[in-house]
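Thread: quick sanity check before group meeting

JM: Hey all, I'm pulling together slides for Thursday and realized we never actually wrote out the predicted structure for the chain we discussed last week. Dropping the sequence here so it's in one place. If anyone has concerns about the input, flag it before I start.
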Amino acid sequence: MNPEKNKTDCVFCKIVSGEIPSKIIYRDKEVVVFPDINPVAPVHLLVVPVKHLESLADMKETDTALTGKMVAVANRVAREQGLAKNGYRLIINCGADAGQLVQHLHIHLMGGRALKWEN
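JM (edit): ok, ran it. Output follows.
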């Protein structure tokens, strides 16, 4: 698999670079947060690393600080979105069978209503 080809075709990389417009909720040099285009909750945001990693399975030991930063950013944004009091859910899908549709590591941050476990 050619990671550079995947990066150039990646919709999340295009959002991170500004090639595809999106409402950016949070951005720093390592992490970007923007709304999911198919929300399943009143608040449904995606926490995405600037660095292209196809999935959690492709993460190297040197990437653990980045994934920790993604969780910290998700928690910060959840508080800013008013979700901390009643709760929120963080989900990382890894691979096709788990429902990962975009081959770029991302965390779903969902809340704003009571969430049920679908599967």
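AS: nice. Helices lie at 3-9, 11-17, 64-80. The beta strands are 26-27, 31-35, 43-49, 88-91, 107-111.
JM: adding both to the slides.
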